[in-house]
């Protein structure tokens, strides 16, 4: 039974009031912003509205995972949809629909969180509930700007609701300003959010899926990691590992639990997007794009997009490199790294893995490989998306404790504490029954450990919207040796050109905002 979802789409749509007298009309069926923000219930509904953007096609319903995974060396496009292939081979145009949908939904979340942050402080309500509402708004705004930064490089930073026409045409901020704002938002969220919602009092008590202090800490640490502020990153990750307040996360015994519909919001998860099927939460209209509406479904399309031929679209395939990388390891008392069979659907008689979905005998060529992670394959279902098309209810995990451990190891290594990094890598390897790294590769240099961490992150986090951004922040695309490796692993990198690691600023934005600047991908 899937846990109860709190992200219902029943929120009031606010009306913008024109400045000219002849346009200064109120819709009698809707509230104005001034009328709306008046009580605790509306404050909570306002922040709930900011969560719903995560369910949008441009965000984690489909395009953010698909267009991120597709650019990495562990995934390649296999789709008749030109945009997916063009993003994957770095030739996408600024007129592309999918990259515009991503841009729009990130800024929808900015718009909604700005409303919360501007209006909720003046509402008379329980102070603890108010702090939690504001903390969630800071977290979600930081998350939106984090995605804008890693995907679009330089963007306008908007921190207040528009008050005049001029406010709609904000200039592009510098990268330094953008990343500083992300740090500020996650830091504010960290101060205001609770450790969990089980021990709070108020209408949000017990509501799983809301942002917590741990989630804000994890993303603050990750932000510092991207900024190469290693000691600050390590400090945040250490809070999650050593505590005392936040060390309530742990690795699940079974790696597959991190992608299962039956073990969501588990001990390893710091934050995940809450999806659900219509029979669980209702909805009649697919949540593809635009502003979320009351009749929207809350389904994910990732499963059907990634699912193998005969069960879904098969828009992407794992590269042969990542498959072989799993087989580079020699697990203790096992034929293959157990993460391989969770991440990739492949024919493995030696590991007694010769069927798919509800026991169907392997229906493909013996050497074919397909994505399995975030599909229903392996969890007892006979079809993908519960028998429908794009109807998955599997939550998308944005950050796991395994990622925290590996990021902490990376920060330690960059600080010159290479020997100390072994412990946290081994924590992750132990679950996969891999031999102790200190025994098989003792006394690695800092540079050797960098390559080892890249290997560990590839195996643990493949096809989780992480790998490509790792490649970018490590500078591999501007390192001739590493770029040659990427091109060997995935021929789509042959058409990469400097600056094309980012998605171009949508042409529609450049057309309407004279102060917006193109980026290196335009």
UniProtKB/TrEMBL annotation:
**Residues annotated as domain SusD-like N-terminal:** 23-225
Compartments (UniProt record): Cell outer membrane
The record's annotation in InterPro entries points to:
SusD-like_N, SusD_RagB_dom, TPR-like_helical_dom_sf
Which named protein is this? RagB/SusD family nutrient uptake outer membrane protein
The UniProt transmembrane annotation reads none
Q: Which UniProt keywords apply?
A: Cell outer membrane, Membrane, Signal
The record ties this protein, via PROSITE patterns, to:
PROKAR_LIPOPROTEIN
Q: Which domain of life is it from?
A: Bacteria
Tell me the ranges covered by the RagB/SusD domain, including all copies. Answer: 268-516
Family membership, please give it.
Answer: Belongs to the SusD family.
């Amino acid at each position: 039974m899937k846990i109860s979802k709190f992200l219902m789409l029943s929120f009031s749509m606010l009306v913008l009031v024109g400045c000219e007298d002849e346009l200064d009309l109120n819709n009698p069926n809707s509230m104005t912003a001034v009328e709306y923000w008046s009580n605790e219930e509306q404050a909570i509904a306002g922040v709930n509205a900011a969560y719903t953007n995560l369910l949008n096609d441009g965000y984690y319903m489909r395009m953010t995972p698909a267009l991120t995974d597709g650019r990495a060396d562990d995934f390649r496009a296999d789709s008749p949809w030109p945009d997916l292939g063009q993003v994957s081979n770095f030739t996408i145009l600024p007129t592309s629909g999918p990259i515009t949908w991503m841009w729009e939904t990130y800024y929808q979340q900015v718009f909604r969180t700005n409303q919360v942050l501007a209006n909720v402080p003046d509402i008379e309500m329980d102070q603890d509930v108010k702090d939690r509402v504001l903390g969630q708004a800071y977290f979600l705004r930081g998350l939106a700007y984090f995605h804008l930064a890693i995907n679009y490089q330089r963007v306008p930073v908007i921190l207040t609701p528009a008050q005049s026409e001029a406010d709609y045409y904000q200039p592009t901020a510098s990268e330094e300003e953008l990343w500083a704002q992300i740090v500020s938002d996650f830091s504010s969220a960290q101060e205001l959010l609770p450790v969990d919602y089980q021990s709070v009092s108020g209408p949000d008590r017990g509501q799983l899926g809301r942002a917590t202090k741990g989630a804000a800490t994890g993303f603050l640490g990750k932000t510092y990691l991207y900024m190469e502020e290693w000691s600050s990153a390590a400090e945040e990750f250490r809070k999650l590992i050593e505590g005392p307040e936040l060390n309530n996360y742990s690795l699940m015994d079974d790696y597959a639990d991190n992608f299962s519909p039956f073990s969501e919001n588990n001990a390893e998860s710091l934050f995940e997007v809450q999806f659900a099927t219509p029979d669980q939460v209702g909805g009649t209209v697919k949540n593809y794009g635009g502003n979320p509406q009351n009749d929207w479904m809350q389904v994910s399309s990732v499963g059907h997009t990634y699912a193998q031929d005969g069960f879904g679209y098969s828009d992407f395939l794992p590269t042969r490199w990542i498959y072989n990388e799993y087989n580079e390891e020699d697990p203790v008392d096992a034929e293959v790294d157990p993460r391989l069979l969770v991440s990739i659907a492949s024919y493995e008689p030696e590991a007694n893995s010769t069927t798919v979905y509800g026991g169907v005998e392997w229906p493909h060529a013996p050497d074919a490989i397909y994505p399995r992670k975030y599909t229903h394959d392996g969890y007892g279902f006979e079809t993908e998306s519960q028998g429908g098309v794009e109807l998955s209810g599997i939550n998308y995990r944005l950050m796991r404790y395994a990622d925290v451990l590996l990021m902490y190891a990376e920060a330690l290594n960059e600080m010159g504490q290479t020997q100390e990094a072994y412990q946290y890598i081994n924590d992750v390897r132990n679950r996969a029954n891999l031999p102790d790294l200190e025994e098989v590769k003792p006394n690695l240099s800092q540079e050797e450990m960098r390559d080892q961490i890249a290997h560990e992150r590839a195996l643990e986090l493949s096809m989780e919207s992480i790998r490509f951004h790792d490649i970018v922040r490590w500078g591999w695309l501007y390192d001739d040796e590493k770029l040659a490796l990427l091109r060997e692993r995935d021929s789509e990198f042959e058409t990469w050109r400097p600056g094309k690691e980012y998605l171009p600023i949508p042409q529609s934005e450049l057309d309407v905002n004279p102060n917006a600047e193109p980026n290196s991908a335009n």
